[in-house]
Amino acid sequence: MDNYQKIIESIYADVKNIEDSGKVANYIPELGNVSPDNFGINITTIDKKSFSIGDFDKKFSIQSISKILTLTMAYKLQGETLWERVDVEPSGNPFNSLLQLEADLGKPRNPFINAGAIVVCDVLMSHLKNPKEDFLMFCKEISNNPHLKYNNKVAQSEKITGFRNIALCNFIKSFGNIKNNIDQVLDFYFYTCSLEMSCQELSQIFLFLADDHFTTQKGDRVLSMSQAKRINAILLTCGFYDESGEFAFRVGLPGKSGVGGGIVAIHPDEYCITVWSPKLNKKGNSYKAMLFLEQFTTQTASSIF
Ligand code: GLU
After folding, report:
1. Calpha distance 118→99 (Å, rounded)
2. Which of 42, 79, 107, 274 is most open to solvent, judged by the fewest CB atoms within 10 Å of its CB?
3. For position 94, what pLDDT does the model report?
4. Which of 64, 192, 247, 276 to mutate to test the pocket of ligand 1 (most atoms within 8 A of CB)?
5. What is the domain-level CATH number for residue 148?
6. Measured from the CB, is residue 193 less than 6 Å from ligand 1?
7. 96 in ligand 1 pocket by Cβ < 6 Å?
8. How far is ligand 1, taken at its centre, from the CA of residue 74, in Å?
9. Cα-based distances in Å from 200 to 63, 109, 262, 272
């Protein structure tokens, strides 16, 4: 579509000044230092056309959006047996909930809640020599972007306040579903969440989920078509904590949010879109990013339904 730029400019102007009663996440103290007024959008199509507005090239903490990247790498390395460790069902519970784990005997409902992502990090640790370095290298390769970095301050800030994640990891270990050292698994998990990217970088890194024929600079596929389809399916049903149904209902695309205020959404065979606005609604999803995406898929008639 040629008028993406016009459409994003007009929705940006509409949504920018809407009253937002949401709050910037500050349970990780370092995240609380971000200006609530940031607002950026980028859409990148599978033929690599890019349209942007606002703070689209400022880097921010991608937080849970990194769960797609850890899952992708773990799925590549572990194959189908990954699903013996983590399920693919929506949780209907908050991202950091301990509730279902007891009944489910330590098998997290899906890879996009914290419990699931911690198990995915554990799987990765069993495969990688230097998990933090190797994972970062993987992200650089699939995005052809040498500028990706962790934010040490954010990772350390989460480490000293990550009581729930520490509890989750211990609880899962008690069921035998964490194989490595707890402190090392958590350290790796916190670093993956601290990755920083701009809207534009995020849209680019996830093109492999939008484009069936995507290959890296070296000519390698990231995932098979069937694996990419499966990740998109889990994104649609589980990408927005206990608001995944609401996101499918209003926006109608697979996607993932993070408590840094970013949302990435994927239109298979067409584009990736990323919206960033740090104030979160009560369920932990960016209020304005959801609103923007709802308008965008409505005006472009480009939801998957
Ligand atoms: N690092 C965050 C946490 O574990 C990620 C949460 C999120 O973005 O959903 O609490």
Report:
1. 16
2. 79
3. 76
4. 64
5. 3.40.710.10
6. yes
7. yes
8. 19
9. 16, 30, 12, 10
* Total structural domains within the chain: 1
Give the span between the Cα atoms of 109 and 177, in whole angstroms: 13
Q: How far apart are CA 13 and CA 5, in angstroms?
A: 12
What predicted TM-score, i.e. pTM, was given to this entire model? 0.97
Assigned domain for 178 exists: yes
Token digits of residue 131: 């998990």
Residue 258 CA to ligand 1 centre (angstroms): 7
Residue 98 domain flag: yes
Residue 305 belongs to a domain: no
Is 237 within the bounds of a domain?
yes
Residue 258 CB less than 6 A away from ligand 1: yes
For residue range 181-227, list pLDDT tens digits in order. Answer: 999 999 999 999 999 999 999 999 999 999 999 999 999 999 999 99
Ligand 1 pocket test, pick from 190, 240, 259 with the greatest ligand atom count within 8 Å of Cβ, gives 259
Distance CA 40, CA 297 (A): 17
Atom of ligand 1 nearest to the CA of 284: 9
CA 154 to ligand 1 center in whole angstroms: 11
> What is the spatial distance between Cα 64 and Cα 61, in angstroms, rounded to a whole number?
9
The strand order across the sheet containing 271-276 reads: 50-54, 40-45, 271-276, 262-267, 255-257
Provide the pLDDT for residue 2: 66
